[in-house]
Amino acid sequence: MDRRRIVEEDGVVAVVRLDDLSDAVAIAQALLEGGVRAVEFTFTNRRAAEAIGIVRDAVGDAGFIGAGTVLDPETARVAILAGAEYVVTPTFKAETVQLCNRYGIPTVIGALTPTEILTAWEAGASYVKVHPASLGGSKYFKDVLGPMPQVKLVPSGGVTFDNVTEFVRAGAVAVALGSNLVDAKTVGTGDWSTITERARTLRGLVRMARER
Fold first, then answer.
1. Residue 203 domain-assigned (yes or no)
2. Of residues 44, 46, 50, the one with CA closest to residue 68
3. In a domain, 114, yes or no
4. Is residue 41 part of a domain?
5. Which tens digit of pLDDT belongs to each residue from 26-35?
6. Residue 7 domain boundaries
7. pTM reported for the whole predicted model
8. For the residues 22-45, what does the mean pLDDT come to?
């Protein structure tokens, strides 16, 4: 199996944006148990690179561990050397895409307007993250993909369990969820079963939307 396609195959990216990453392994394991393999640790936490390395060692090939909120190629290289298997950015920066492609690392590149989306795609992005997806909703995805059906879009920011189906039906190849999937309160109480159930439910919603 081509691990570079896990994001697209599973259709879900879990965004872990927390102030405390001491339970990073437990979080990843809970998500994996629910069927979500793509887990992104954001570089808004200074220990993100450390967490990526520790989780990679703990879960091995069972997970697909990435780095999020990567703002520049320097940070991308730090993430890759720590073990990141894919890189997610909030905005488009050509140098970051180039560096990741040089290392054979897939990217999920942030963009919003049609021009930004196409620019990121033509620069070599594996996927384009439309953020904030709440701004245009699923209808925006359908409108953008009308003239550009070749682009692989991933909504982020404002994706919930209530609208996942709409985004997938509109053409999203995957969805990215943060606090709706992994939140500080649930992690703080060690309620791993809740995170697992959320992951399982989310995978089920994506599967059903694709089948329809």
1. yes
2. 44
3. yes
4. yes
5. 999 999 999 9
6. 3-207
7. 0.97
8. 98
Q: Among this protein's residues, is 40 annotated catalytic?
A: yes
For residue 108, the domain's CATH number is 3.20.20.70
Cβ atoms of 36 and 199 closer than 8 Å? yes
Phi, psi of 60 (to 5 degrees): 60, -140
Residue 139 has pLDDT above 70, yes or no: yes
Question: From CA 68, how far away is CA 133, in angstroms rounded?
Answer: 17
Maximal C-alpha separation, the chain: 47
Options 8, 9, 33, 40, the catalytic residue? 40
Annotated active-site residue 185? The verdict is no
Q: What is the pLDDT of residues 196-210, one digit of tens each?
A: 999 999 999 999 999
Please report whether residue 212 resides in a domain: no
Q: Which of 99, 94, 127 is nearest to 7 (CA)?
A: 127
Three-class HEC string of the chain: CCHHHHHHHHCEEEEECCCCCCCHHHHHHHHHHCCCCEEEEECCCCCHHHHHHHHHHHHHHHCEEEEECCCCHHHHHHHHHHCCCEEECCCCCHHHHHHHHHCCCCEEEEECCHHHHHHHHHCCCCEEEECCHHHCHHHHHHHHHCCCCCCCEEEECCCCCCCHHHHHHCCCCCEEECCCCCCHHHHHCCCHHHHHHHHHHHHHHHHHHHHC
Catalytic residue among 33, 122, 129, 211: 129
Kindly report the number of other CB atoms within 10 A of residue 143's CB atom.
Answer: 13
Number of domains in the chain: 1
